[in-house]
Amino acid sequence: xxxxxxxxxxxxxxxxxxxxxxxxxxxxxxxxxxxxxxxxxxxxxxxxxxxxxxxxxxxxxxxxxxxxxxxxxxxxxxxxxxxxxxxxxxxxxxxxxxxxxxxxxxxxxxxxxxxxxxxxxxxxxxxxxxxxxxxxxxxxxxxxxxxxxxxxxxxxxxxxx
Length: 161
Hints:
67% of the residues lie in helices and 0% in strands. It is built from 6 helices and no strands. α2 packs across α3. The protein starts with a helix and ends in a 7-residue tail after the last helix.
Protein backbone atom coordinates (compact mmCIF):
# COMPACT_ATOMS: atom_id res chain seq x y z
CA UNK A 1 0.00 0.00 0.00
CA UNK A 2 1.25 3.45 -0.78
CA UNK A 3 1.61 6.18 1.74
CA UNK A 4 -1.35 8.07 0.27
CA UNK A 5 -3.53 4.97 0.40
CA UNK A 6 -2.56 4.39 4.05
CA UNK A 7 -3.49 7.96 4.97
CA UNK A 8 -6.81 7.76 3.16
CA UNK A 9 -7.63 4.47 4.88
CA UNK A 10 -6.93 6.14 8.23
CA UNK A 11 -9.21 9.12 7.44
CA UNK A 12 -12.19 7.15 6.11
CA UNK A 13 -13.42 5.81 9.49
CA UNK A 14 -13.25 9.31 11.01
CA UNK A 15 -15.15 10.77 8.06
CA UNK A 16 -17.83 8.07 8.33
CA UNK A 17 -18.25 8.77 12.05
CA UNK A 18 -18.62 12.53 11.44
CA UNK A 19 -21.25 11.94 8.74
CA UNK A 20 -23.22 9.51 10.93
CA UNK A 21 -23.18 11.84 13.92
CA UNK A 22 -24.35 14.76 11.77
CA UNK A 23 -27.26 12.67 10.42
CA UNK A 24 -28.21 11.66 13.96
CA UNK A 25 -28.11 15.28 15.12
CA UNK A 26 -30.16 16.46 12.13
CA UNK A 27 -32.72 13.73 12.79
CA UNK A 28 -33.00 14.72 16.45
CA UNK A 29 -33.48 18.39 15.56
CA UNK A 30 -36.07 17.50 12.92
CA UNK A 31 -37.94 15.23 15.34
CA UNK A 32 -37.89 17.99 17.94
CA UNK A 33 -39.45 20.47 15.53
CA UNK A 34 -42.11 18.11 14.15
CA UNK A 35 -45.06 20.46 14.60
CA UNK A 36 -48.54 20.24 13.17
CA UNK A 37 -49.63 22.86 10.63
CA UNK A 38 -52.02 24.32 13.21
CA UNK A 39 -49.19 24.67 15.74
CA UNK A 40 -47.09 26.46 13.12
CA UNK A 41 -49.99 28.79 12.33
CA UNK A 42 -50.47 29.64 16.01
CA UNK A 43 -46.71 30.15 16.39
CA UNK A 44 -46.86 32.55 13.45
CA UNK A 45 -49.49 34.65 15.28
CA UNK A 46 -47.19 35.17 18.27
CA UNK A 47 -44.22 37.52 18.51
CA UNK A 48 -41.08 36.14 20.07
CA UNK A 49 -40.63 37.95 23.41
CA UNK A 50 -36.82 38.01 23.09
CA UNK A 51 -36.45 38.56 19.32
CA UNK A 52 -37.42 41.90 17.87
CA UNK A 53 -39.78 41.64 14.92
CA UNK A 54 -39.77 37.84 14.61
CA UNK A 55 -42.60 35.43 15.08
CA UNK A 56 -42.27 32.43 17.36
CA UNK A 57 -42.41 30.31 14.21
CA UNK A 58 -39.43 32.04 12.57
CA UNK A 59 -37.25 32.61 15.62
CA UNK A 60 -34.28 30.39 16.44
CA UNK A 61 -34.14 31.39 20.10
CA UNK A 62 -34.44 28.83 22.86
CA UNK A 63 -37.55 30.54 24.24
CA UNK A 64 -39.28 30.41 20.84
CA UNK A 65 -38.41 26.71 20.53
CA UNK A 66 -39.95 26.07 23.96
CA UNK A 67 -43.03 28.09 23.01
CA UNK A 68 -43.48 26.03 19.82
CA UNK A 69 -43.22 22.80 21.82
CA UNK A 70 -45.73 24.13 24.37
CA UNK A 71 -48.14 25.09 21.60
CA UNK A 72 -47.93 21.58 20.15
CA UNK A 73 -48.38 20.04 23.62
CA UNK A 74 -51.44 22.18 24.31
CA UNK A 75 -52.94 21.23 20.94
CA UNK A 76 -52.27 17.56 21.68
CA UNK A 77 -54.09 17.88 25.01
CA UNK A 78 -57.14 19.35 23.26
CA UNK A 79 -56.86 23.07 23.93
CA UNK A 80 -58.32 25.38 21.31
CA UNK A 81 -56.46 28.05 19.39
CA UNK A 82 -58.14 30.80 21.43
CA UNK A 83 -57.18 29.15 24.73
CA UNK A 84 -53.56 28.83 23.63
CA UNK A 85 -53.36 32.44 22.47
CA UNK A 86 -55.01 33.60 25.70
CA UNK A 87 -52.45 31.60 27.71
CA UNK A 88 -49.60 33.49 26.04
CA UNK A 89 -51.41 36.85 26.39
CA UNK A 90 -51.88 36.17 30.11
CA UNK A 91 -48.23 35.28 30.46
CA UNK A 92 -46.53 37.90 28.23
CA UNK A 93 -49.19 40.57 27.69
CA UNK A 94 -51.08 41.67 24.58
CA UNK A 95 -47.83 42.68 22.90
CA UNK A 96 -47.07 38.99 22.29
CA UNK A 97 -49.79 38.97 19.62
CA UNK A 98 -48.49 39.97 16.20
CA UNK A 99 -51.93 41.32 15.28
CA UNK A 100 -53.71 43.37 17.96
CA UNK A 101 -57.24 42.25 18.85
CA UNK A 102 -60.16 44.04 17.23
CA UNK A 103 -61.84 45.18 20.44
CA UNK A 104 -61.70 47.93 23.03
CA UNK A 105 -58.81 50.36 22.84
CA UNK A 106 -57.29 48.46 19.94
CA UNK A 107 -59.96 49.79 17.58
CA UNK A 108 -57.92 52.99 17.65
CA UNK A 109 -54.98 51.03 16.28
CA UNK A 110 -57.10 49.54 13.52
CA UNK A 111 -59.11 52.61 12.52
CA UNK A 112 -56.74 55.41 13.54
CA UNK A 113 -54.71 55.33 10.33
CA UNK A 114 -57.85 55.24 8.16
CA UNK A 115 -59.46 58.14 10.03
CA UNK A 116 -56.21 60.10 9.88
CA UNK A 117 -55.86 59.52 6.14
CA UNK A 118 -59.47 60.51 5.38
CA UNK A 119 -59.18 63.56 7.66
CA UNK A 120 -55.95 64.60 5.97
CA UNK A 121 -57.50 64.29 2.52
CA UNK A 122 -60.51 66.38 3.61
CA UNK A 123 -58.23 69.08 5.02
CA UNK A 124 -56.26 69.19 1.77
CA UNK A 125 -59.44 69.45 -0.30
CA UNK A 126 -60.73 72.33 1.86
CA UNK A 127 -57.38 74.08 1.76
CA UNK A 128 -57.11 73.90 -2.04
CA UNK A 129 -60.73 75.02 -2.55
CA UNK A 130 -60.23 78.09 -0.38
CA UNK A 131 -56.88 78.87 -1.98
CA UNK A 132 -58.33 78.57 -5.49
CA UNK A 133 -61.33 80.76 -4.59
CA UNK A 134 -59.05 83.45 -3.14
CA UNK A 135 -56.66 83.29 -6.09
CA UNK A 136 -59.39 83.57 -8.72
CA UNK A 137 -60.58 86.91 -7.33
CA UNK A 138 -64.19 85.93 -7.79
CA UNK A 139 -66.26 87.13 -4.95
CA UNK A 140 -69.46 85.50 -3.96
CA UNK A 141 -72.49 87.56 -5.04
CA UNK A 142 -74.15 89.62 -2.35
CA UNK A 143 -77.72 88.67 -1.60
CA UNK A 144 -80.26 91.37 -2.60
CA UNK A 145 -81.48 91.72 1.00
CA UNK A 146 -77.96 92.45 2.20
CA UNK A 147 -77.43 94.97 -0.59
CA UNK A 148 -80.63 96.85 0.34
CA UNK A 149 -79.64 96.86 4.01
CA UNK A 150 -76.22 98.37 3.19
CA UNK A 151 -77.85 101.00 0.97
CA UNK A 152 -80.25 101.94 3.77
CA UNK A 153 -77.41 102.28 6.21
CA UNK A 154 -75.32 104.43 3.89
CA UNK A 155 -78.15 106.58 2.47
CA UNK A 156 -78.54 109.06 5.38
CA UNK A 157 -74.90 109.94 5.09
CA UNK A 158 -75.19 110.62 1.40
CA UNK A 159 -72.72 108.05 0.36
CA UNK A 160 -74.95 106.18 -2.01
CA UNK A 161 -75.88 107.78 -5.39
